[in-house]
Input
Amino acid sequence: MKSAAQNLPNILTWLRIFAVPFFLWACIHKSQFAVVIFIMCAITDGIDGWLARQLKAQSVFGAYLDPIADKLLCNTALLWIVYESKNLWILSCVCILVFRDVIISYIRSNFRDVPVSKLAKLKSVILFFAIVCLLQAIVWHSVLVYQLGFMLLFVSTCLSLWTFVSYTSSNIDNH
Output
């Protein structure tokens, strides 16, 4: 039986999932709370994995649920940004990011020995910053913040393509 502390990583992951409707509501109302909710969820994404390792509370369920929570939050944010920006370049980046996530999730679900690379973690961190900037640009109507967010999104997309090639080529070589 797990202690309450050992359940904390999964609780944080569930909280991120439950935050998505509130996040979307804040986006629709172009509220600063959208940015705050996203930042809080991004922080808890890092904390839950760290806690699971520190408390030796890693679980198959947590390993399954965490990426779902991440993709649900990030893809909701990205789709909202595409809707608000009406920018073909942002749409292209988002399509690449979502396509990559679907394929990599498929590979991970069929070949469980595919670890997350450090470059993929860097891509995720840059993507979180890109989303924060782009959400903030929508709230503030700031061209400068929008341009910074787009540049970060572009870098994240390039890293996403790089890790996609790396994951798929190593998967083909190993199987």
